[in-house]
Amino acid sequence: MKIIEKFLKFIALMIYLIFALIPLYWIIITSLKNSKEIYTFPIKYLPEIISFESYRKLFAFTNFAIYFRNSLTIALIASSGALFIAMFSGYAISRYGFRFKKYILLSLFFTQMIPMFLIMVPLYEIFSQVGMIDKLITLIILYTNMMIPFSAIMAKAFFDRIPVSLEEAAEIDGCSKQQALFKIVLPLTLPGLAAIFSFSFINTWNELFLAVMFINSDAKMTIPVALNSFVSKMGVGWELMSAGIVIALLPTIIVFAFAQRYIVSGLTEGAIKG
Amino acid sequence: MRNKNSKFFLIMLIPTFIPIILLTYIPISKGFIMAFQNYNLYDLSNIHFIGFKNFQEVFSDTSFNFLHILLNTFLWVTGSLFFQFVLGFVLALLMTKPFKGRGLYSGLVFYPWALSAFAIGLIWAWMFNGQFGIINDILKKIGLIHQNIGFLSDPKYALISVIIANIWCGIPFFAIMLLAALQSVPSEIYEAAEIDGAGYFKKLFHITIPYIKPTIINTAILRTIWIMNSPEIIYAMTSGGPANSTNILATQMISKIYNFYDYGQSSAIGLVIVSTLIIYTIIYLKVTSLKEFSL
Amino acid sequence: MKKLMIVTVLISIFLLVSMLSFSASEKTTLNFLEVQTSPDRTVLLKKIISDYEELHPNIQINLISPPYEQAEQKATMMLNTNQPLDIIEVKDLQLKQFVSSKKLLNLESYLESWPGSKTLLPFTLESARVIDNTAYYIPELFYLKALFYRKDILEKLGVSDIPKTYTELFEVCKEITDPSNNQYGFAFRGKAWEYVYSDYVISTFLDDIDVNNIYKKTNGELVFKDPRYVEGLKLYLRFYHETAPKDSINWGSNEIVNGFISGTVPFLFQDPDNVVVFNKMLGEDKYGAVPLPVGPSGKAYFGINVAGLSIPSYSEHKKEAWEFIAYFLSPEVNSYFLKNYGALPIHSVTYETDPFFSTKVYQAWAYMMEHPETHVLVKYPMDSLKYVGWAKVHEADMQSLLLGKVTIEEVLNKWTEYWQ
User: Fold this and answer.
1) Which 3-state string (H, E, C) describes C258-313?
2) Which long-range CB contacts under 8 A does A31-34 form with residues at least 24 apart?
3) Is C141 helix (H, G, I), strand (E, B) or coil?
4) Nearest residue of C to residue A213 by CA position?
C-alpha cells in the first residue's frame, strides 16, 4: 500500500513540476535560438545550433547591466524598508488589543483593493510638483509604500502565532519591551519575515507601470520597463524579450529559493514547543 | 503600565500609516473625484463635474457590453481562485512531509510566482498561438486535435485560456502560504484521531482544515483582491478581445486610459472595482464568521 | 539573522552610492522624447545623437525612450506637467491634443530661416501645417501601406500576375487557400488599428470619398450606409472567412508579419519600416511590393501617417533644440536614418537622387504618390475627439461582425451614429 502511495505521490509531484517548467523550458530554448529559427514551421523544440546571440545583443544593444543594477537596488531597499516599517505595526496590531484593531486591519486590506491606475495620475502630479520625477528615490518611496500594507498584514499574522507568554517571561527576567521584541520574538518569526521579504522583492522587481511613468532617463531605467520596450510597433521582439526574461528571472529565483529554506523547513514548530 | 504601552504601540503604527495616507489615501480621493468629472487627456481644458454620466456611459456601452464584462470578471475571479486554491492546496499537502530534494523541488515548482505578470501573459500568449504555439503543436502530435485551435481568437476558448495562465501563476502563492500553515500544525492533535482510527481524508477535513482555517480565509481574500485587480495577463494575451470575450473590469479600466484617454470613465470603473471588493470582503467575513484576521 | 540584515543594508547603500556619482558639467543638456520606440530604432537614434554631440561638444542630448505601448501616455503626462523637455517626437494623432493644450511651439519662424525647408516635399510642408495652417511640428518620416507579396511562395503556387484590383486579389487568395496545408492567402488584421485595413479595402468601392475625411462622401454624408460601402464590407468579410486563418481575428502587427515571413499568408499590407525586417529575415529576392490595389471604382484611397519633431512651448533651450532638429531633418541625416529604419523620407531631393528610395520595392510607394488619378490621398478625422477611441470601438464591432454576433446593418448603424 505504502509503495503505491509513494508512487502516486511521485507522479503527482512530477505532473506539477512539468506543468510549471514547460513555459520556462520554452522561453529558455527560444533565447538560445538564432533569430531566424524563432518563427519556423514546424516548431523546433531544440535549437539546431545553440546560439547566445540573443544574450549578446541584449547586453550590447541596451544598457541591460545598468537596468539590472537599478532594479536590484530599488527592490532590495524597498523590500527591506517595507519589512522594517511593517514589522513594527504588525507587532503593534498583534499585541495591542484595542477597539480600532479591526478597522486598522481593514484599512490595510483596503489599500490592496485600489487599482494602481486609479491613483497613478494623482501620484504623478504630486511628485511632479515637488520635482521628483525621474529620480530613483521616487520609485523606492513608491514601492516601499506599495509593499507596506501586505507586509504589515502578514507580519501581524506571524506575530500572532508567537504566544505573549514568551515575552512576559522575558520581561520577568528583566528585559525591556524592545529587547523582548528584538531578542526573542523576531528570531522566531524569521521564516515569516523571509517570506514577506521574498514576496515584496518579487513584486517590486517586477513592477512596470509606475516605473514607466516616473522614470525618464535611460540610466535610471528598470528591467520591467526594458522588457516592455522590446514590444514595438512591430509587436514582440522575441529575440531580446526571451533573453531578457531569463536574465530578469535569475535574482528573483535566487531570493525566492533562499527564502524557501526558511518557509518550508518548519522552524516555527520547534520554537513554539520550546 | 497600560498607558505607557498604548503610546508605544501607537508610535509603532505611525511609520506605516504616514506613507499610506500620503501616497495612497490622498491620491485615491482625487481618483474618486475624477470618476465624476469629464476628465479626458485629449482635451484637458474642459474638466468639469458631470455627476454620474461616466458611470452611465460605462454601463450602457454598446461595443463593450457591461454585463458581459461583469460576467467575465466573475468567471475570471472564481475560476482562477478555485483552481489555484485547490491545486495549490494539493501541492502543499504533497510537500508537507519532507522528501529528498524537497528544497530544490520547491525552488523549481514555485518559480512561476517570480515571473512578472506581463512576461507570463506574453509567454502563454505565444504558447497558445494559433499558428506557432506549442500547445496546438503538442495537442496535434498527441492526436487530440487535427486542426489548430484558435485559443485566443475563438471566444469559446479565450477566457479559459487566460484563466489557465492565471492558474499557473497563482498555484505557488497558495502552495507556499498553505504549506507554511501546515508546517505549524502540531502533531499531537492528530494523535487522538489516529487512536480512534481516523483515515486520511477524515483527518484532513476534520482536523487539518479547521486548524488552518484563518490562513485559508485570509489568503483567499488577499488573492481574490489581487486577481480582481490584475489586468496584465489578460491584456498581454488578448487585450480583452476578441469581441469583449475576455474583457474584465480591470482591463476595461486600462483600455479606457490607453485607447480612449478617458480618465473619468476609467476612474468610474475603478470605483466599481473598489466597491465590489469592499462588499465582497464584508460578506465573505460575515459568512465565514471570522472574528479576527490572522494568517 | 542580524548579520544578514546588516549585509543587506550595506549592499543597498553601496549600490545607492554607486548610482549617485555623477559629475555636473558645463554642457547644455537637451531632453529628447521619442514615441515610436523600438530597440533597433533607438540604437540608430543614439548613433545619430552621438554624431551630433561630437560636432557640438557643448551639447548633451538625453534620449528618453518609453516603451511603445506606453509612449503616448507618457508624452501626454510629461507635457501636461511641464517636465523638462526640449525635443519631442509627436505622432500625427496626438498633434491636435498638444496644440490645443498649448504645449507645442510655433515653428514657422524656424522653418523660414532653415535652408532644408526648400527641399522638403510639398506634402511634408502640408502635413506640418495641418493644424491652423501653422507648422507645430516638422514631419520626420512617413508611413504608408503597400501590398507586399511573397515572390517565392506565389511562384511555387503557380501565381504569375500580381493582382491590381481587390477582386483579382480575392480570386488569387481564394485559389491558393488550402487550410489542410496551412496555406492561406490574405494576412487579415483583426486587432489593433485594424480599421485602417478594412477602410482601405472597403473605400475602394466608392469614388466620391471626401479627401479631408475618409468617412465622408463629397456630398457631406457619412459613407457607412452607402450601398457600395456595404458591398465593400461584404468582400472584406469574405477575405476573412475564405482566405485567412480563423485565428487572424486576433492578429495584430506581429502576427500578420509573422504570417508573411513564414509564408502562411503571402499577401500583406504593411508600412515601409518592415522593409528592413523583410530584407533581414527573408532576403530581397523572396518578396516584392506593389501599390495598393484599386477597387470597382477604379480608385484606391489611402492615408499617410506621420511622426514629426517638435519643441515644447516651455522648453528652456529652444534655439539649441531647433539646431538639433534641423540637423536631424537635413536630407543627409534623414536619408541615413530612414535607410536603416525603412520609413519614407521627407525631402523630394532624396527621392530624386538616392536610388535606395526610388528602386525596387520603394517603387510601389513612389507610384502611389505620383498617380493621384487612381491612388487618392485622404485624411482621417484626427482632429475629432471621436477619433481617439475609434480604433478600439471599430475593432470590437468588427470582431463581433466576423464572429456573426451582430449583423452588417447593426454595425453600420452604430458607426453612423458614432460619427454623427
Assistant:
1) HHHHHCCCCEEEECCCHHHHHHHHCCHHHEEEECCCECCCCCEEECCEEEEEECEC
2) A31/A55, A31/A242, A31/A243, A31/A245, A31/A246
3) strand
4) C74
Contact yes or no for B43 and C97 at CB 8 A: yes
* Residue from the list A39, A73, A225 with its beta carbon closest to the beta carbon of C262: A39
Q: All 3 cell numbers of residue A32?
A: 538560445
- Chain B contacts of A110, Cβ < 8 Å? 278
ipTM for this model: 0.87
The CATH topology of domain C146-302+374-419 is: D-Maltodextrin-Binding Protein; domain 2 (3.40.190)
The 10s digit of each residue's pLDDT in C22-32 is 544 568 999 99
Q: Are A195 and B176 an interchain contact pair (Cβ–Cβ within 8 Å)? A: yes
- pLDDT category at C262 given cuts 50, 70, 90 is confident
CATH number of C25-143+305-346: 3.40.190.10
Q: Which residues are registered as beta bridge partners of C143? A: C305
CB nearest A39 (choices: C39, C67, C261): C261
Cβ of B44 and C245 within 8 Å?
Answer: no
Which residue in B110, B221, B263 is closest to A260 by CB distance? B110
The CATH code of the domain at B49-287 is: 1.10.3720.10
Q: Do C258 and B63 touch (CB under 8 A)?
A: no
Task: Report d(CA C101, CA A219) in Å as an integer.
Answer: 30
A269 pLDDT higher than 50 = no
Mutate to test the interface with B, among A6, A16, A100 (most CBs of B within 10 A): A16
- Write out the three cell numbers for C233: 464590407
**What is the residue extent of each domain of chain B?**
49-287
Query: Please, are residues B244 and B66 in contact by the beta-carbon 8 Å criterion?
Result: no
B213 with B204: CB under 8 angstroms? no
H or E element at residue C149:
strand C146-150
Q: The C-alpha cell of C38 is what? A: 523600438
CB contact under 8 A, A253 and B114: yes
Q: Are residues C9 and A41, on separate chains, in Cβ contact within 8 Å? A: no
The dihedrals phi and psi of A49, each to the nearest 5 degrees, come to -125, 135
pLDDT, tens digit (0-9, with 9 covering 90-100), for B231-255: 999 999 998 878 899 999 999 999 9
Q: Do B20 and A89 touch (CB under 8 A)?
A: no
Which of B105, B134, B263 lies closest to A13 in CB terms?
B105
Q: Measured between CB atoms, does A40 come within 8 Å of chain C?
A: yes
> Band of the pLDDT at C370, cuts 50, 70, 90?
confident
CB pairs under 8 A between A and B: 251
Chains linked to A by 3 or more Cβ pairs within 8 Å: B, C
| Rounded-to-integer distance, Cα C172 and Cα B130, Å | 24
Q: Judge whether residue A44 has pLDDT over 50.
A: yes
Are C90 and C307 in contact by the 8 Å Cβ rule? The answer is yes
Residue reference for cell 506634402: C123
The C-alpha angle with vertex B2 and arms to A273 and B8, in degrees rounded to 5, equals: 80
Weakly modelled stretches of chain B, pLDDT under 70: 1-5, 289-295
Cβ of C414 within 8 Å of Cβ of B62? The answer is yes
- Domain segments of chain C: what residues? 25-143+305-346, 146-302+374-419
The whole-number average pLDDT for the span C226-242 is 94
Task: Identify the residue with better confidence: C168 or C254.
Answer: C168
